[in-house]
Design goal:
7-stranded mixed β-sheet, Aspartate Aminotransferase, domain 1, alpha/beta, binds pyridoxal-5'-phosphate, 4-stranded antiparallel β-sheet, 460 residues, 2 domains, Aspartate Aminotransferase, domain 2
Amino acid sequence: MSLTQHLSTSISFSSSSFLSSSGFTFRNRDVSLPSENFGICRCVATPQEEKTTYKTKVSRNANMAKLQAGYLFPEIARKRNAHLQKYPDSKVISLGIGDTTEPIPEVITSAMAKRSQALSTLEGYSGYGAEQGEKPLRAAIASTFYGDLGIEEDDIFVSDGAKCDISRLQVLFGSEVTIAVQDPSYPAYVDSSVIIGQTGFYEKDAEKYGKIEYMRCNPENGFFPDLPKVSRADIILFCSPNNPTGSAATREQLTRLVQFAKEKGSIIVYDSAYAMYITDDKPRSIFEIPGAKEVALETASFSKYAGFTGVRLGWTVIPKELLFSDGFPVAKDFNRIVCTCFNGASNVVQAGGLACLSPEGRSAMQKVVGFYKENADIIMDTFNSLGFNVYGGRNAPYVWVHFPGLSSWDVFSEILEKTHVVTTPGSGFGPGGEGFIRVSAFGHRDNVLEACRRFKQLYK
Ligand SMILES: Cc1ncc(COP(=O)(O)O)c(C=O)c1O
């Protein structure tokens, strides 16, 4: 394939004291493991499907039946495993799923170990905690991430991760609301909406579910929706920095989004899972925008800052000012959901979260984030040097590469077949992702360098 597109990067950049850009000027290599085996995929046997003719009398949830194929990332894992069976000796490198690879800084794991050991003592034992999270952690999240934004400790709901909170938020809003999503977007928004029953059927030609407003985000509109053309939805799911495009919205764009929500009477669910990756002056929280507390809530995560993808810890902020049409506070209903559907994040993990927010923990997280950002630079430089149009990467751990006119799944398959590198096809994030692939910057340095060497070989 000959590709002669010119370099065109979308670069974006603002606020809370901790998230300020100063922490990202260094380049740190210490957090990388020697990576002979790490990040190289091994084939995992999938369980044999059991053949049974007995059926229960329970009918399948009709909303589940609306879902298309598998959830994107297990589908990619399936393709990767099939590839490994075809080429058992290949050294497959995964820059696909967006899972973290670098070790959790010791200041954080030692706090978890201490808390864990204390559970074996009479004095240190504790059982169920507060469903909303432990007070010191809620206070530390409020002051660290929202210090000057008027967000208080009791506005914070600590959770087992942003993905779980997204589903709990869907339970909160129920099946009668309509949603709008960026297109492309993180697949959990659309899939959880389908599951809860907010959507119509999947429309194959449009590659969209009925009743969802897909807000196209592409290079032409600077990856920000053309709001005058967007139909009203009750809930606007908005992610910045965005997964998968890697683009972060500007203050001016978010001001327009907040105004739009206010005019339409909508609620913004703002996903800031990658806020720490912002190195310029772009907002790191929707609450930096005046008036946002009346129209927005925010969900966030330790996953991509501290390597907590397996440990599991996140939070959701719901300001007291955010009210339903009958004047009832959204936070009160969410509190009810949390008390019913969740019994609080692990106490051991919350000790880890508190350690993340100590001065040492904060600087350790910044090093981890800095390391992945350096990977993103390497990947961007590679595709730029090959003449591709490359987006994202500057304020996010994702590089969004354009293959105009080609099918994302075809590009994904060609890259896997010829380089043994797993990426993610853009169309898996919505029809607006067609013609793009997402390359994740989560990986050991050696693997990222090797993957880039193979990309150069393929596209030279
Ligand atoms: C935009 C976005 N939100 C949420 C999540 C999930 O975060 P968590 O690990 O806290 O569930 C991810 C994970 O990749 C993500 O990309």
